[in-house]
UniProtKB/TrEMBL annotation:
Source lineage: Eukaryota, Fungi, Dikarya, Basidiomycota, Agaricomycotina
Organism for this UniProt entry: Laccaria amethystina LaAM-08-1
Name this polypeptide is given: DNA 3'-5' helicase
Cross-referenced Pfam families: DEAD, Helicase_C
Boundaries of every Helicase ATP-binding domain copy: 151-335
Ranges of biased composition (kind: Acidic residues): 753-773, 795-807
Entry GO MF terms: 3'-5' DNA helicase activity; ATP binding; DNA binding; four-way junction helicase activity; hydrolase activity
Amino acid sequence: MDYDDYDSGDYVASDDIPAFLETFTDTSTSKPTEPSTSKPPASYVKDTTTRQKTQHIDAQIAEKEARILEYEQDINKLRGLVQLFKHDVQELRRELKQQLSGADKKGKGKAKDVGIDYGHDTGFEWGKALKGQMKRVFGIDNFRLCQEGVCNANMDGRDIVCVMPTGGGKSLTYQLPALLGAGCTLVISPLISLITDQILHLREAGVEAVMLTGSMAKEEKYDAMRRLRLLAEGKLGPREGDAIKLCYFTPEKLANDKSFLGLIQKLYESGNLARFVIDEAHCLSSLGHDFRHDYQKLHILRKQFPRVPIMALSATCPPLVLKDLVKTLGLPPIVDGYNADDEGTVYFTSPLYRKNLHYKILAKPAKSAEMYQLMVDYILEHHPNDTGIVYCFSRKESEIVAQQLKELSQNRIRTGTYHADVAAAQKESLHKAWRNGSVRVVCATIAFGLGIDKGDVRFVIHHSISKSLEGFYQESGRAGRDGKDSDCVLYYRPQDGTNLVSMVATERDGQSKILSMLEFAEDVEQCRKIQFATLNPSETPPHRYFSQSSNLSIASWSTSDSSALQRCGHCDNCLRAQDTIHRRDVTLDTWKILKVATIVNRAGGKVTLSGLADLARGLGGGKFEVNQGKRGKMKCALDLEAECGGKVGIDKIEIEHLLIQLILKKYLDVEYHQTAYKGIVYIVPGQLAPTLVHLSRKDIETNARRKVEMVVAKGASKPRKRTRTAVEKDASGSSVLRKRKRGAGGKGKGREDDDDGDDEEDEIVDEHGEDDDWAVRPAPGPSRNLFSPTTLEAVVDDDEDDEDEDYDWSRSMREDPPRKRHKGRRKSENGFVMIKEGDNEIMVLSSD
């Protein structure tokens, strides 16, 4: 039996033990050789030398890649500035052309020497009628942003793409022209909640509008279809009072109801089909943040109804999405709405920045009871009588939050719940109650709010981070639509991001979008407005989010008052005192974390965000699990003193923030692993990890070429402590369960004395997945020859299955598979440590 058969492993099965022991025995005598004094074979030395050379090459590659990333970031920043100045030049040239032309455009607004300026011309024949109707029906005196230009292009029968910020008044741009023109305007909208809100608003204004959805009463649906047929058959004049001016439906209705499609055909043939309006048009593109498959079936509109103008509306439509949208709908090429040719799709965009929205990110407690109380305190202190929305991570969470806000405030906060499982009748009832003020705060998932036309929403709170920065912008933008000051608050802690990674692992660009959201939340210096304008999930670290090189560039965040790169002056980061911001050199701490992550990964171990934080801080005896396939799992212990010169000396909250920042900087990475029970995200060494890992501690402390900084705001890392309230109910009546670690005699008994007490936490989970752990693909099998055998040892924890737990907001109460216990630790006659692993005994290799 050759030693080479075993030198690549750190364990052997009991069946092979006799043969294995022969490799440690002198063949000239029957006396066994002492393991502690035996010299390693030549093959081991050769493997070690090769491994050291490989690690050195890996480090050089990582260093070059790091420089490439830095240069790419610099290039992207310069590209953003180039786009901004190009936009300014275009605006100045357009202004100069207007001054020189002096053209008097009338009627259709077409001039001989210049394009049509739909936004600034006053000579359109319908101009007075538009403003008069706007005042009489909607009570609005003046247009905002690009509303007037879009209305003019609409009246001119043009194909239109309009990108306006959430709350910018997109609905007016098609509702107002629909009242002046003949025929019926068909509006395709993604959510019943949005349709319901629009119908309520229009009916209050006296506008003849109907919706066709599955939740409607049969009588109401029959009446709407009857009136549409009368219009299609010419039995109801297009301008008669009973004629339907606007008809709302979902894309699913168009895709699945052939009889309805036939009715649209009759409206078209009779000349009573005025226009198609596609609201939330970014849902049409798979490149958008909220793709809907049925939206892509809207390509039939241009093919089947070629003479009907199409209008696409969105609050966020980056260039790639815009290009995809135009292609799918079969629209002609884009032309500028302020200098439009006679042919083409007229494009309008307004500054996405809204100065009346004040963004703030607050530290989120780990314990749900504290979180509820913080939210109650905030609402009662800042918005006691105001209307607001609280966005929650899941349906179950939205119900619990609504209940707790109501109870803890002693009914001073009147709440309602909205999510996909709420019955249609209840949704409509909630809409009415929210509009009339009997319900002040709606606790909801993202199913609520698209296009909600309620101007006096004074605050939007995010109980957890959104899946993308784009989604966060839209959701928070539902505040302050009346132009008055409103607050947008995000409660954030690093582990919330881990919940979302596993949920979007299969979505296109899902992980990169979440990383952009985390970059936004972790930044305590940069103005939130500038972050919105510059963060892009397609780059690492993220840059230029809403701008990717074309019409929707960084300039979309410029206004007449300020540049896109000028600080807003009123977000939390702009108002933060400079003396509260601290830059900390965390190169040594980063080195230790990367060493731990590398050792665990090479050993075939799997570690989550929380687990890596605990390992690096020396908690739990440095233990982690290694998956041995069919043999189950083996516990290993890491000697931090030997490997890293000691543990990382920062508290749990700070190290979790550091871990997120290391992920964003590519020193760490996340990998997703799906089991039969849940999806988990694990932390693994990232692309740049070798740039530090190959260095010694002395190199790190004296002359490390690459420094890692962590910027923290004093007082921002930990939420303020509160006295425990009566949030918790008994087990029989509570929807909020607690998770506690046992004290003396339990698993927590072996904790370090310097543990700062912040490890007892309530894990926030959702019914779609498991707790707040990060994810990966299955870790590789145990890797051999990767660390000194004195620093890693297989260990047994007899209490590992005995911890009493009950879970906080549980996504799934399905039981995990039973764990295999690692018992029966003993010493063989040769002095080796033996442990029982299933039906086999495992030998722990160690030189001590």
